[in-house]
Amino acid sequence: MCGIFGYVGNKNDAADIVLEGLKLLEYRGYDSWGVAVKVRKKLSVDKHIGKIGDAQVNLPQSVLGIGHTRWATHGGVTAANAHPHMDCTKTIAVVHNGIVENFQELKTELIEKGHKFISETDTEIIPHLIEENLKKEGFASSVRDAFNSLKGLNAVVVAYAPSREIVAAKTGSPLVVGIGKNELFVASDASAIVKHTKKVIFLEDNQMVILGKRLKLINLPGGKEIKPTINKINWKFEHGEKGKFKHFLLKEINDQRTTIIDAVTQNEKKLFEFANLIRNSFDTYISGCGTAGHACRMATYIFSTIAKKHINFAIGSEFSYYEDFLTDKSLLIVASQSGETIDLVEAVSAARRHKSKVTALVNVIGSTLYRQCDLVLPLRAGVERCVLSTKSFTSKLAIFYLLAFILKGEYSEGRKKIIKTARAVGELLDDKEFNQQLKNVADEIYKTKDIYILGRGFSFPLALEAAHKIKEASYIHAEGFAGGEPKHCEISLVSEGTPTIVFVPNDETKSAIISNATEFKARGAYIIGIGPEKQAVFDEWIQVPDLGVTSSIINIIPAQLLAYYLALKKGNDPDKPRNLAKSVTVK
Ligand code: G6P
User: Fold this and answer.
1) What residues flank ligand 1, with Cβ below 6 Å?
2) Ligand 1 center to 289 CA (angstroms)
3) Angle CA(30)–CA(372)–CA(169) in degrees, nearest 5?
4) What is the pLDDT of residues 331-366, one digit of tens each?
5) Which domains can be identified in the chain, with CATH numbers?
6) Ligand 1 atom closest to 581 (CA)
7) pTM: predicted TM-score of the whole model, two decimal places
8) Side-chain half-sphere of 348: how many Cα atoms within 13 Å?
9) Ligand 1 centre from 309 Cα, in Å?
């Protein structure tokens, strides 16, 4: 969480370059932002609360600047808490991603030494620590020693007014350095740099880099210089433009007509290698967070039904509590759009401790999980800018299906089924009446306080994901259930007119889920059915084609669109829901 960008080079519009970088990183946090530039022997700073949007910065020309877009952890959303943070002399500026776990004790020591603090953040101790160190050593060593005294997973980028260098260091949180012609960049993610250069260095944990006329990479805590590995990234700069769409959410829902096909157009050797790891492992665990977690839960049904293979699922934040089960014969699969989610990075470390094999499905090439895992299948979904995950969800499902078909010995047939489903997704998205119907449903239900969603089997994770989408987009309380469960509890909450979405595919769950819908209807619920056939219990029928075992991929589309139209109806920003961030790099 939080986006960091830094620039040093021969151009004198550092502030604009940094701001442009921050706009590309805004998905990481958007409650406040700020930029600092070096102007001769001083720093000039501009900070704001709120989203960056189309903002401009009001800063002098400069060849060196750093900036930050924040997702608040310590301290509320105020201009004082926005980064960059400075020392008492106002010559050191720091932007930071992570949490300094020992900030309270460091702050107490600094206050005793006479330092004055103006924010409530943990970050502010860092410039003051550097200020102390500068009394006895140079800029880079001062940052190194300050950084070494921090506990927790952190990434910092520091500017010092008298210096024409930027110093950056990390443990845990991501940082990427870009090497241009007479210019260097540092950012939380390569997508913000790729417009300027394709030559990058992915900083490893406990590394620090000094960016000036040249680049110097050093190991922490000691400070020994090391040779950097320069990677050439071969992706095009994709602003992830909205094109004809008003919002990224709608654009990315529509992207699914091609991204599902791209997901199953994988390197076959790697696909079979991945499937073989599942086949040969003694036990397989799968983990993801948020929407990716729902995809992972779905994988357990996919592998069990198609490949007759049992997979253990745990959401990312709970995974490490199962680590005692892991052995050197275990396999862990993590699934993540960003490849940065901290709970999964920690799950990978837990698996490593037990010498288990670690594999991943990741969208962002070069991300932490992409680099840390033994074998990675890229999602190939393209840039996903909206905080709500849509296309990366169906890409994960498509790959899980394909792996299960490989295990069953039906690679080509399975691939054909998934591609057929993707084509049907395209037709559904093109269907004007279908879109209009979902708009109408949103108009009808947007004032409700609660929405319930029921599904069994494959449709249970879909119910969870549909609720997730609706909550993020509309802030309406929505809850997904395994269809048989609410009679043990939540059916007591149903009242007259409660919108209840029910997934009724043409599979073995059909008759039981219809009974569950009937139980809700008997208590006054308004039943919105998603399925290929009209059922008497439906008050509203959202028709989707029957695509057999891969139907789950298409069944989520109406829920994604409904979430979008609910966001519009409620006047919310569908791309940047309040309090959320796309990449969650703190625990
Ligand atoms: C955040 C996002 C969710 C996403 C989750 C996992 O909470 O808001 O949309 O599903 O992180 O992200 P990942 O990048 O690991 O898929």
Assistant:
1) 289-292, 336-338, 341, 387-389, 580, 582-584
2) 6
3) 55
4) 999 999 999 999 999 999 999 999 999 999 999 888
5) 3-232 (3.60.20.10), 242-429 (3.40.50.10490), 431-587 (3.40.50.10490)
6) 8
7) 0.86
8) 26
9) 26
